Amino acid sequence: MEKCSHGQEIRTTKRDEKEKKELMNRLKRIEGQVRGIQKMIEDDRYCVDILIQMSAIQAALKKVGFQLLERHTNHCVREAIEAGTGDEAIKELMEVFKQFSK
Amino acid sequence: MEKCSHGQEIRTTKRDEKEKKELMNRLKRIEGQVRGIQKMIEDDRYCVDILIQMSAIQAALKKVGFQLLERHTNHCVREAIEAGTGDEAIKELMEVFKQFSK
Amino acid sequence: MEKCSHGQEIRTTKRDEKEKKELMNRLKRIEGQVRGIQKMIEDDRYCVDILIQMSAIQAALKKVGFQLLERHTNHCVREAIEAGTGDEAIKELMEVFKQFSK
Amino acid sequence: MEKCSHGQEIRTTKRDEKEKKELMNRLKRIEGQVRGIQKMIEDDRYCVDILIQMSAIQAALKKVGFQLLERHTNHCVREAIEAGTGDEAIKELMEVFKQFSK
């Protein structure tokens, strides 16, 4: 089980290469989509067509977000509950969920 | 009043330089934020800290979206209503509202 | 075209009976769904099952909201644009849209 | 620790009276707000004013939802993790997260 270390200032969590690769591919695609929007602005493209592309980016971001949320719950929150320090981890989980579902 | 031309395959709408510059600055910043998330993944950063950054990107995207939406309503939808072809423009506006508020 | 009167303190807009009936039916159903949630709480029903019902109420509310938004744009915003007072009506439309898409 | 029983068809979870009372008060208020919207429709009230009230209902529903979500995570998900059956409970929690943040 990956160790979620909270002690130091910068909190870390060890991810395996497969998971990292998958997240990076998605984020690279999102980066490309953002550049695509820039191009549409330069080309004076119709607002509605741009807005449809932006909704696609929001959906892609949400997908990455839920992947991270599920991973976090499965690893760090579970670890904390098993170690008897679940209260804080659950409170943090709820805060990030509220933030993320705005 | 900018002309929103729908005739051809690729719909366009003429934006002034000031507006373009503002939109591009915001989109460049969002692009940088997405690269920042990629760095956090590479550095095995804690999921919750990454999710908080992702919420900031979603908020920034929403801001750009609302800016485009207001501009579109003020120009293209208004033009269509004044030209007596408002029905289709309003219908399209509602579709984009729904898409964008998911 | 229904008259959207803004002069007095309480702003009104004349709706036809068919539209009123449809809106009221939906709102009565939503009222019933809220009472259904109360019953589930009394019966100590499992949180996840209650949350799924609550999502259904949120979706139903959103539908009514979009119906009102479309009607408002088609009547009051269109009227204001045709009367040359579109700026304020569009600004108000964007404010309500931001509020509604939180 | 309340027992979250999944065995039978209707899943239940025992809530204490204080929590029930708080949830019921909120839900009664929401029920009253929905009836308030009905009255506004009958009185031909301006769409924007109705939409603002509807956003208040959505916010109130979201608050009740987060309360249930936090309680569920603190009780049923924690119980499942401690009993070594966390996988299913976490999967279910993510499904409800997704549903609820639409």
Automatic annotation (TrEMBL), chains A, B, C, D:
<dbReference type="InterPro" id="IPR003735">
    <property type="entry name" value="Metal_Tscrpt_repr"/>
</dbReference>
<dbReference type="InterPro" id="IPR038390">
    <property type="entry name" value="Metal_Tscrpt_repr_sf"/>
</dbReference>
<dbReference type="Pfam" id="PF02583">
    <property type="entry name" value="Trns_repr_metal"/>
</dbReference>
<keyword id="KW-0175">Coiled coil</keyword>
<dbReference type="GO" id="GO:0046872">
    <property type="term" value="F:metal ion binding"/>
</dbReference>
<dbReference type="GO" id="GO:0045892">
    <property type="term" value="P:negative regulation of DNA-templated transcription"/>
</dbReference>
<feature type="coiled-coil region">
    <location>
        <begin position="13"/>
        <end position="40"/>
    </location>
</feature>
<protein>
    <submittedName>
        <fullName>DNA-binding FrmR family transcriptional regulator</fullName>
    </submittedName>
</protein>
<dbReference type="GO" id="GO:0003677">
    <property type="term" value="F:DNA binding"/>
</dbReference>
<keyword id="KW-0238">DNA-binding</keyword>
